[in-house]
Amino acid sequence: MQAVHSNPRLLYVLAEDSGAAADYSACEKAASRSASSPGNANRELALYLAGKGGDPAKAVQVARKEAERKGDVHTNDALAVALFANGEIDEARRLMKAGLAVGTQDPEILAHASKLAVKVD
After folding, report:
1. Given its phi and psi angles, is residue 87 left (phi above 0), alpha (psi -120 to 50 degrees) or beta?
2. What's the angle, vertex CA 103, arms to CA 14 and CA 63, rounded to 5?
3. Among residues of the chain, what percentage have pLDDT more than 70?
4. For residue 11, how many C-alpha atoms fall within 13 Å in the half-sphere facing its CB?
5. Domains and CATH numbers, the chain
């Protein structure tokens, strides 16, 4: 059961479900420890920092680094959310539009697009 409690992605899902500060703290610590590993939770960490973590500048830093490494639609979504939270509205919307242009139907990305006021076709 220890592996469950050290998996930052799972901890993020649990924190989102519970909303408990202690759960988000555990997620942030686990994500920070695995930041450079292939199976990291940098996307989740950026989303947390952009929102309930209250550190959008750090969220942008984490998401940019991950986007340079991966560049996938999910990572770019996290970067767009972080940019928006950091007040970089135009860049956030441009990036979100580019992500939507590939035709993603991921409900989380579509929800983020809606929050950024980006038209979902």
Report:
1. left
2. 45
3. 93
4. 28
5. 2-115 (1.25.40.10)
For residue 62, pLDDT over 90 is answered with yes
The DSSP letter of residue 98 is H
Residue 94, number of CB atoms within 10 A of its CB: 14
**Distance of alpha carbon 103 from its chain centroid, rounded?**
19
Tell me the per-residue pLDDT of 9-51, one tens digit each, with 9 for 90 and over: 788 888 888 988 888 888 888 888 877 777 788 888 899 899 9
How many angstroms from the chain centroid is the CA of residue 44?
Answer: 4
The pTM of the full predicted model, rounded to 2 decimals, is: 0.85
Rounded CA-CA distance 38/111 in Å is 26
- Taking the alpha carbons of 13, 20, 39, 96 in that order, is the dihedral positive or negative? positive
